[in-house]
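Hello Y.,

Per our agreement to keep a running log of every chain we model this quarter, I'm adding this entry. I've kept the format consistent with earlier entries: sequence first, then predicted structure.
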Amino acid sequence: MTDPPSHLRNVVEHALAVSAATDGDFDVTVEPVLDYYLGLPRPVSVDPGLRRIVAQREACVGYKSIVFDGTGIRFARGGMGITLDGIAKGYVVDQGLAALRRAGIEDALIDAGGDIRAVARADGKRFWNVGIVDPQQTNRVGAVVRVSNAALSTSGNYEVFFTADRRLFHIINPHTGYSPNRYSSVTVVAAEAMESDAMGVAAFSMDLPRLDRVMAARRAEWLAFSWDGDRRWRSRDLPLVAGEAHTL
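Predicted structure for the entry above:
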């Protein structure tokens, strides 16, 4: 694509920065694999035929094969594609908040279904309490996080999934072509929603020690529910006001 719109350039540029910071755990080029899953009748059966096709499409995944320069956005290999589902909604939320601020609004909460951005006056007395869905019982709140002048994004395996056991869902590990099964839900708090959105996706492919290190390097806080929902972990400075979670 030559001369892409500025909004698209901004999103792709940030996506590539997050990919580099996470060693490819966030990668918008998983589109060929995700598109294949989305087109299958559900529930999906993980059989040898599926594995063969996934392996073929996985060969097209790799953010380093995106050529992003002053002339546009191109792919270095055939068969590639990009999906911005893991970052674009966060960008839209950030743009919405910018519009509210230009209108003089000092206290606001934008909720785009999993991606939230809060703004409050800088007097230290105003904040928002945000409920996090329990991934095992989605009609219940599993935790509450206090947010003030920050973004919060939650990703999980409980809304869009392809197999009956939810082991294959809409988040794909770019290194394998399959869904990571360490966590059932990850929440990230960061300065902007585009960052929290992308980092919440990347987190699923990280073990806990690495998750904690990478989030600290990105100045983000986090909360993770184990795959079976029996355990919860969080960063030490996450403003958790309800629910229990262990720190590392």
